[in-house]
Every structure is written in structure tokens, then in C-alpha cells.
Design brief:
This protein is of the alpha/beta class. Helix content is 46%, strand content 18%.
Length: 401
């Protein structure tokens, strides 16, 4: 397993003056190509899903595939939700496997942005999940970038950045210094003096949105001035589309799979190029050695049904699962039962959390306390050993649906 703590990964990049690539995914072709490029380059990466792209795929199907790829990889990987639109969607992304999130409140005025971001930070940090905040606005000029990010750009003010970071507690800050969402016309002119001032006032890893279209010198200056994360999508999308147009021209009667030939290879080559430019190639071993792994935690609750109370099963299945799954950081609730040799009926709740830091949030949450209170109405606390609980986790009893 190479899924690691995103906060640790970007801190490592920040302290060693290189940038980790966050590559937005819109299909399995993108996912496989990015993973292959990172493996070939021995680099850490962030697999990114962007909420505005959810119109093109079912993210509840995509994220399990992304997580499976991350856990199978031999290089360090983190998973993020980019441009999240609400606290609710961010909580859902954490439940589905993201260990880094971003609330896009950049269109709000400063006080409203701070208030909305602070609420997300409080929730996500209770789950151990890192948070990106955005101050300033990176707009699009044409095509998809303009559709998803309309309006005029607003550059980040250094003094506001300092106040924003202090009052929200974000782990990373996305800044606007002249980059563009989507396609660009010519070479963007970046305000490095502004970035230098922000870097001086804000001692956290910085992030660039609209990383496509920059040259080697610009990337080098970015990483020297605190940028530890570069979001990258448009160039990959254009490369994939170009390959498919070429295939269509050469093979006008080709099937869908015929037209896709070469797409993964082209994306892989571009990602490898970026990883070299940004200084992240060859760093996988040191990241894995210095950063904490991202591991789930199973919390098990066991109760014995009182005689005459077995009708509580319907409530237990329907209501308790629904209540527990509303708690941030809870990924899954599985419920099972077994009958002992003496005929006692035991019920088991396996509450799977995003990672160990979530346990404190769970036991303090009002929904969990209400869950335990309701259990006392129908069940008794059995005398069981720790080994018995471990056995329940390893070979869980038959599920109740």
C-alpha cells in the first residue's frame, strides 16, 4: 500500500523545493496513465477528482477505482477532491476515500470565504484530512476552462493571504498570480513578486491552479517560492483529444477502442515530462520513508440481544447504519450477527473510518452517543475478549441488509 498522508507529502515538497503534481482524472485511461508515469518516474503524485467534472462521470464509481490504484501503487499517492462546492460534498468525498480536500469559496468576499473554509477545516481536520484553501480567483479564458471558471481573474493580496491562513487554519493555500484555468493564449505572465511576498508572509505549502502552458523557467521559479503543488489537467485533455482526432482521421471507420489507441501512452509521456520539470521524479523512496501511511481504522461494537427484543433487528439495520454514516470520517458501517452455542444472539457493528484520527471525532459525535443510548434499550454489553473482537473484524459474521 502506498496511499500516504497528503499533508506530509506536500510538506516534504515544500521543505525540499519541488512540486507534487495533482492530475485531474476524467476516465480510467487518465488514471492508469498517471499511475504508470509516476511508477516510471519514481515520483509521488496526487490523484485528483474535480467536482465540476462530475457531470462527465459517476464519482461514486470513479473514487473506488482511484483508491484501488493508489493502494496498489509502489510510489506514494494521495487522493484529493478539487474545487469542492459545499461542505456536504467534501464530507462525501472523505467517506469515499479522499485524504485531501478543497472548498472552492474563492468567488466569495474575504469574510465569507474565511467563514466557509473554517467550517470545512474544522470538519476535515477532525478526520485527519488536509485542506486546501483558495484566495484570489483563477478564471478561464476560453473553452472548458471559461465554462467552468467564468468571470474576471482576481490576484491574491499578500496581506489578505496572511489573515486568511491564520483565521482558517488551512494546510495549503491556492494562490492567483496570473495563471489561467484551461487553455491559454501565449505564455502567461506570472507575478513572481506577488508570490514572493505571499511566501514570505505565509509559511505553508502554496498551490497553483492552471498549471498548463508554463515553461521550465516559470516552473523553477514557482517551486523556489513555496509552490509545492501544481494542478494539471488541460494539457492532458488536449493531448488525449489530439490523439483521438488523429486516429479518427487515419481510421474513420474505427471502433471506440481503435480511436483510443495511443491515448494512455501520450498522457503518460506528458505526466513524466512534468514530474521531471517539477523536481518530483526520483523522490518516491524518501517520501515513503518520511511520510505517514494513510490507513483505515475499524471500530467494532458488540451487543447481545435481550430475550424478547429480537424484533429490534429491523431498527438496528435501517436506522443505526443511516445515523452512523452521517458522521464525518465514517466510510462504511457493516452489521452482522452470530448465535453462540448457548443460543445467545449477538450483533456486531463494524464502523470503518478514514483513518485513526477519526476515532476521537466518532466517540464525541452526538449521533454516535445517541446510537449507544438506543442500543441500551434493546441489547446488553457482552463479556468478550479483545481476541474475539479481532476475530470478528478478520472474519465478519453474516451481514444484515
Amino acid at each position: 500500500m502506498a496511499l500516504i498522508n497528503m499533508r506530509d507529502m506536500l510538506r516534504h515538497a515544500y521543505e525540499n523545493n519541488y512540486a507534487v503534481g495533482a492530475f485531474d482524472l476524467v476516465s480510467l485511461d487518465f488514471l492508469e496513465a498517471v499511475i504508470e508515469a509516476a511508477e516510471n518516474s519514481r515520483a509521488g503524485i496526487i490523484l485528483s477528482i474535480e467536482e465540476p467534472h462530475f457531470a462527465h462521470y459517476d464519482y461514486e464509481l470513479m473514487l473506488p477505482a482511484v483508491e484501488a490504484a493508489a493502494r496498489r501503487a509502489t510510489i506514494p499517492v494521495a487522493i484529493q477532491l478539487d474545487h469542492g462546492r459545499s461542505q456536504q460534498s467534501i464530507a462525501e468525498a472523505i467517506r469515499l476515500g479522499c485524504n485531501g480536500v478543497m472548498l472552492d469559496a474563492s468567488a466569495l468576499d474575504l469574510p465569507a470565504n474565511i467563514e466557509a473554509t473554517r467550517a470545512v477545516v474544522d470538519m476535515a481536520h477532525g478526520c485527519g484530512v488536509a485542506v486546501v484553501g483558495e484566495l484570489g480567483y483563477v478564471a478561464g479564458i476560453e473553452g472548458e476552462g471559461k465554462q467552468l471558471h467564468p468571470g474576471e481573474p482576481a490576484l491574491t493580496m499578500p496581506t489578505e493571504a496572511k489573515a486568511y491562513v491564520e483565521r482558517t487554519g488551512v494546510d495549503f493555500l491556492a494562490v492567483s498570480i496570473g495563471t489561467t484555468q484551461g487553455r491559454v493564449k501565449g505564455r502567461p505572465k506570472l507575478d513572481f513578486q506577488r508570490l514572493k511576498q505571499i511566501h514570505k508572509l505565509v509559511d505553508i505549502p502554496l498551490e497553483i491552479h492552471g498549471g498548463s502552458g508554463l515553461n521550465e523557467e516559470q516552473y523553477r521559479k514557482l517551486t523556489a517560492l513555496g509552490v509545492a503543488k501544481i494542478n494539471y489537467y488541460t494539457a492532458l485533455s488536449d493531448i488525449a483529444a489530439s490523439v483521438m482526432r488523429r486516429q479518427s482521421k487515419e481510421n474513420p471507420t474505427g471502433s471506440f477502442t481503435d480511436l483510443k489507441k495511443g491515448v494512455k501512452e501520450a498522457i503518460r509521456e506528458e505526466v513524466q515530462r512534468c514530474l521531471r520539470l517539477w523536481g518530483s521524479a526520483g523522490r518516491a523512496a524518501e517520501i515513503l520513508a518520511q511520510c505517514r501511511p494513510w490507513a483505515q481504522l475499524d471500530h467494532v461494537v458488540v451487543r447481545t440481544a435481550r430475550q424478547g427484543e429480537r424484533g429490534a433487528m429491523q431498527w438496528m439495520v435501517a436506522e443505526s447504519r443511516a445515523r452512523l454514516e452521517t458522521i464525518p470520517g465514517v466510510r462504511e458501517v457493516a452489521i452482522g450477527r452470530s448465535i453462540d452455542g448457548d443460543g445467545q444472539l449477538r450483533f456486531f457493528w463494524r464502523i470503518r473510518m478514514a483513518q485513526p484520527d477519526c476515532l476521537d471525532r466518532l466517540v464525541q459525535h452526538s449521533a454516535y452517543r445517541e446510537f449507544l443510548k438506543r442500543l441500551d434499550e434493546f441489547f446488553e454489553s457482552p463479556k468478550i475478549s479483545g481476541a474475539f473482537v479481532e476475530q470478528c473484524v478478520a472474519g465478519f459474521p453474516p451481514m444484515l441488509r
